[in-house]
Amino acid sequence: MDVTEAAASSKAELKAELKARQAPLKERYRSEPGSAVVTLSADGELDGSGIACKVRTSTALVEAGLHPATGGDGTQLCSGDMLLEALVACAGVTLRAVATSLGMAVSGTVHAEGDLDFRGTLGVSKDAPVGFRDIRLSFALDTDADADQVATLVKLTERYCVVLQTLTTSPATSVSVSTG
């Protein structure tokens, strides 16, 4: 078996594995729509030591703090960076899943960047927005797929990327507090 045949075989195996994993889930979600609604959560710890929040991820405890543009020293994670990282991660995984489902061989990189006017978050200007003004997501892909196939890949990635859809559709968000 040459390299091309091995790659095609590996691609077919990945596609079959993904389909096998997702088929029972899709069937269950069709027959029991309520089972498809899953509440994800994240927790942070405000331990009182400094201007930071410790966030537990599935693999580590990370500490978020102020961005250098707001007075941070750059040693802690910035939540704005984490938002962009979540977008990159979700878009990358979604693109790979869609490519696998379509039987496409794709590699490359994913990049996100966003523009913040820190005058807003620091209260320097009431006219400056708090949060990202613009976010740009880009892919640099290595593939043998033609332009129409790549367009379909990107269209489906945009449609099914949870973080991208969340950012573009702005779901209802609420804030609550309890004291003890």
Description:
There is one protein chain. The chain has five helices and five strands. It has 180 residues and is of the alpha+beta class. The protein is globular, with a radius of gyration of 21 Å. The mean pLDDT is 92.
Indicate the topology.
Layout: H1 3-31, E1 44-45, E2 52-56, E3 61-65, H2 79-102, E4 106-116, H3 118-121, E5 132-143, H4 147-160, H5 162-169
Antiparallel strand pairs: 1-2, 2-3, 4-5
Helix pairs in contact: 1-2, 2-4
Number of helices, counting only DSSP H or I runs of 4 residues or more: 5
Query: How many runs of DSSP E, i.e. beta strands?
Result: 5
Low-confidence stretches: none
Radius of gyration computed on alpha carbons: 21 Å
Main pleated-sheet profile: 3 strands, antiparallel
Helix content bin: 40-55%
Q: Order of strands in the sheet with the most strands?
A: 1-2-3
What is the ordering of alpha helices and beta strands?
HEEEHEHEHH
Structural class: alpha+beta
Estimated share of beta-strand residues: 15-25%
Q: Average pLDDT, to the nearest integer?
A: 92
Beginning-to-end CA distance, first to last residue: 67 Å
Note the overall shape.
globular
Supply database-style keywords:
alpha+beta, 3-stranded antiparallel beta sheet, 180 residues, 19% strand
Summarize the structure.
The chain has helices spanning 3-31, 79-102, 118-121, 147-160, 162-169; strands spanning 44-45, 52-56, 61-65, 106-116, 132-143.
